[in-house]
Amino acid sequence: MACDDVGGGTAAVWLDMDDVERAAAAVLPPDVWDFVAGGSGRELSLAANRAAFDGVFVRPRILRDVSGCDTETTLLGRAVRMPVAVGPVAYHRLVCPEGESATARAAKAAGVPFTVATLSSVPVEEITAVGGSVWFQLYWLRDTGRTLDLVRRAEDAGCEAIVLTVDVPWMGRRLRDVRNGFALPDHVRAVHLGGGTSTAHRAGGGESAVAVHTAETFSRSVTWSCVRQLRESTRLPIVLKGVLAPEDARRAVEHGVDALVVSNHGGRQLDGALTAVHALPGVVEAVGGACEILLDGGVRSGTDVLKALALGASGVLVGRAPVWGLAAGGEEGVRRVLELLAGEVTDALGLAGCAGVADAAGLDILRPVGVGIG
What is the mean pLDDT of residues 175-197? Predict the structure, then answer.
């Protein structure tokens, strides 16, 4: 594992996220790389997430003063330096010994929120101690009491939102992990789920140990009653992650949800699921401004952020790219990823004739084929 290579100059040549991805792939063990990079099934949705962004084209506006182009905005009522949050990704210590602590420090330096996962390998208390804006991603566990204990723990630690992920009754069949018989190394633990060794550490032929562990732990009966119970149990904003259908978006608003993440889980759940880019306009129309809308899945550049804003999102979550940076360069690698993205967002906004983030919503775009499905 070589997450301190930035000092040797690796990050100096990162000109885009493809460079970062290649740098991470070069240093990670093949099975860990597959765990981070892979999708489910034939990886159709994984590929479609990128293709959907590539199919959106923006009509720039001209003769506008962009000399003071400003990327600052708000997410969940808090000022951020760009319309981006670091999304939840499990087990950062798989790619770097400092794990989520390093990623959180880099997010703080970049002025964007960091989302700590239920399957974090560093405790939430250590992450919030970094001092940045932290959201807590929640899976609904088979034990409801244990689930709500996690919510209280996140509140006590100083988290600013609960991000309830609702598209994982169990893990999608991620064939790379199955073929690799992937299991966690002993030093990587699900610290919020007891912190000891578990079935996730027991390699077996023809299956993913991580998938076996989550199947034992996650509830398969998460319904709207769970959302209602969560709303009654926390004072924090609730973000519902994994929404693709307009009908579900409307119902979320009725249940008091503060924000939605339009997402197909990075192509890692239902293979063939609609992309977030295709689903976003229908969700925006259904919600009608009643709650904030974020997008994740396939975001790789500042122009992707611009396109998401033009399609109606308030911002985006990025998951894989910060982990690539962590793998290739530790905390400094994540900083470089977020600095690169911030520069690209400024570039995209300015070249599109937008003096600020709000202006992007008024851009005319060629919508991707399939928008409006559902």
Answer: 96
